[in-house]
Fold this protein.
Amino acid sequence: MGAGHAALISLRVLALVVMMGVVALTAWSKIIIIDIERRGASVVDTMIFNTEADREAWRSFFSVVLNNGFKIWIALACGSFTILATLTVLLSNLIAKLHLRPLITIPLQALSTLATTTAFAFTLSATLSLTNFTFSASYASAPGMTFLDTSTSRDLKTFSAMPPFSQTYTIGSGSAALLLGITTVASLIQSCCAGRSGKACSFEPTASRLGMSHGYQADEPTMFDPAKPEPAAVMMMDEEKGSLLGGAADMGGRRSPDGSVRMGMGGQQELSDGISGPLGLKKPEDVVLMRPARPWSEMPKPR
């Protein structure tokens, strides 16, 4: 495992952890929204406020939160899909039996990045809709801000957790989208580089067009199936075969007083001219050349 591959896995793990936190906060926010929908109106009606404007401020806050319920559902669905997709890619990279081809993992990473970006867009919209409400008295005098008093009820303190939650999962979804975008682009570049290096190292039959003839000359030269040897190479091969046969004759026979070589064992013949060899010796050009079939050598050659 190279350093680049380990870095990509680390980024995916970090994005996975961030998205798990985003989904957890989003689910918690959805529970608060359901609680507001069920009990929010009754809590505000039974609570004693200093002024009627404070009561109307809480009702306005509940209305905005309930309108963001659909956005929270979309963010929750996109975050869950991102977790599943990222976990699948991680297991594919870490476990050999679960390995998936880049044609599957790269689109899956792209979809997870798109889903995370969608979650970020909807959570950002929900967060911006709550920026006019504050629970701090120091910001109550700011123009356009609506102060919400939570000191009179525990339920109101629970409902006031919506703005901090929305800000947190907006930042988390944006960070996860950035990390997944980086890993997707890096995986795409890595896959393209691996494909190019694989093509460069492949042994194609036309590789001998670069001049690697190795003593052969053909109309369409290939590395695997040379068509015909060069004349100089044929003469050199014949001389080498003749010298080998002569050496074998000297080693296998005995020389007579007149200078001729005689073979004393059965299956060999005695010659008076100094050349001997085993019976039934065929010429090199008559020996059948056994080699595997090469379909590309039988194809018609361009003229």
